[in-house]
Design brief:
Shape: globular
Radius of gyration: 25 Å
Number of strands: 44
Number of helices: 0
Distance between the termini: 28 Å
Structural class: mainly beta
Helix content: under 10%
Strand order of the largest sheet: 13-14-17-18
Largest sheet: 4 strands, antiparallel
Amino acid sequence: VGGKFSSIGGLMRGGIGKIFMDDGSGDSTFNTRENHVVSAITFNNNDIYVGGYFTEIGGLERKRIAKLTLTGEADPDFNPCAGAMVRTISFNGTDFFVGGDFTSINGVTRNNIARLSNTTGEPDSWNPNANDEVNTMALSGLILYIGGNFTQIGSMPVNYACALATSGLEPMWYPNPNGSVHKIYLDGGYAYVSGWFTTIGGLTRSHIAKCNTSDGAADPTWNANASGIVYDIISIGSYIYVGGSFTSIGGQSRNRIARLYKTDGTAETSWNPNANNTVYALQIYQSQAMDDYLWVGGAFTSISSGAGTHYIALFNLTGPFTPAWLNDDANGVVNTITNASTGGNVFVGGKFTHIGGTDRNYLAKMDLNGIIDADWNPSPNGYVNSLNVNNNFLNVGGNFQLISGEPQSYYARFKETDDLRLNLKVFLQGAYR
């Protein structure tokens, strides 16, 4: 998961994190230590290519683009050094393309788009020379579809979207939108295009359209008519899923996320997660049990009536409508989790003041569905850094001076079923870890 955050999955991470698909917890073995936003991620076997606005990542100086290992270390031989932000990356096994706001790659003039060696990051002779930023790319065989703010490719006028042969520079495919393009998604011989336009492919279309990949003409039978920007598009089965800042789409009221029919662009009536803020990212995952899951990321703090669902959620598309996990997020970093001896409960400590839809200062007890124990609330007055269960007792360490309403510095002990601390005389010089 890439973006601009300070923690994810209970771990301190700034621009990219790796989380487990079953419960959203963070993988502590992956840590890139980047210093700014990550806006694009793609894979080639065990190599991870990332782009963004960072200048350090994976333990090395890397300007806006890097190649990482599965543990987050930067490849020492791959250093393209983009002159400005990289917004999009596309890779088809042999060709590696980057798009963004830059005017140089590794000291070579390349305006907003380039093709790089996948081993060294050096740009080759392919140079479309877009006159403004490239926001999105989609590869289909030897054809690269691009969209952005540009109005010229080389010396040829092209408005906001076109396709290029990977073996040449002559633009082809002209949907000709009247505003910039944010996303191009290819599916079944069509290109779903979203952006800041009101006309595209010869028809009136608000922010999203379905265009032929042959000539760019908009499908006259498909008109989703979004009320605001669509930031991401993804397809599975008979539907496409869309996320953005809209409040209506496909003829229905839909707040920032919707499921649309591929046949005509109308919204499917039974699916309405209702996010309370912008949705920026969507991803499909199919489990070994063949259940289809949809990951949703964005600026929301509530989705599917789930107050306290911050920035990321997971939906099971095969089973129930509600997210697969919803109540287990927190409004601050989770430092430590330990299993209770019985009852399928866990104790959670950290820097939060709200978790699982419940106010809890730094320490909480919840079941495996994320439901908070209403009767257990020690409420320390400082962060909790360490938890340990032994012989039906819970040991708590942190930087608190008060817990269960009584003075207690840095360390306390509880019976697992009771939120009243035991009267132990423990004197420490600093916060216990």
